[in-house]
Amino acid sequence: MSEVTIYGASDDCVEFEGAINDEFYAHGPWVGRLVAPDGDELIVRAEFCKPGTDAEWTLSVENSGTWPSWPIRFTERPDRDSDPAIVIDIPDGTRIVEVSR
């Protein structure tokens, strides 16, 4: 297992750091799917200035028909404690697949 940290940056990027190092353009709601080598999956959602909230970034996770036993914690974004981040312990070889933006 390795850690991946997920957070929003600026007003249009979703960042993945750690076990996965990638970024995605996210002007509007963004959805990605973490897919483990054994087929377990977890959905990640991010949105900048989601209507009805006071937060700059809204982050969430949800199951995809399976519910992996990966430890998940909500914390602050590295180097910017006013923004949220999600840290997930994922199996080695897990990849992120962009579903929509």
Give a short summary of the structure.
The chain has no helices and 9 strands. By secondary structure, it is mainly beta.
The portion of residues assigned to helices is: under 10%
Largest sheet descriptor: 5 strands, antiparallel
Query: Got a strand count?
Result: 9
Structural class by SSE content: mainly beta
Computed CA radius of gyration, to the nearest angstrom: 13 Å
Our estimate of the beta-strand percent is: over 45%
The best one-word shape is globular
Which residue ranges are poorly predicted, with pLDDT under 50 across at least 5 consecutive positions?
Answer: none
Please outline the helices and strands.
Blueprint: E1 2-9, E2 13-18, E3 22-25, E4 30-35, E5 41-48, E6 57-63, E7 72-77, E8 80-90, E9 95-100
Antiparallel strand pairs: 1-2, 1-8, 2-3, 4-5, 4-9, 5-6, 7-8
Describe this structure in words.
- The chain is an all-beta fold and 101 residues long.
- The protein is built from no helices and 9 strands.
- The strands form 2 sheets. Strands 3-2-1-8-7 form a 5-stranded antiparallel beta sheet, with no helix packed on it. Strands 6-5-4-9 form a 4-stranded antiparallel beta sheet, with no helix packed on it.
- It starts with a strand and ends with a strand.
- The model has no long low-confidence stretch (mean pLDDT 90).
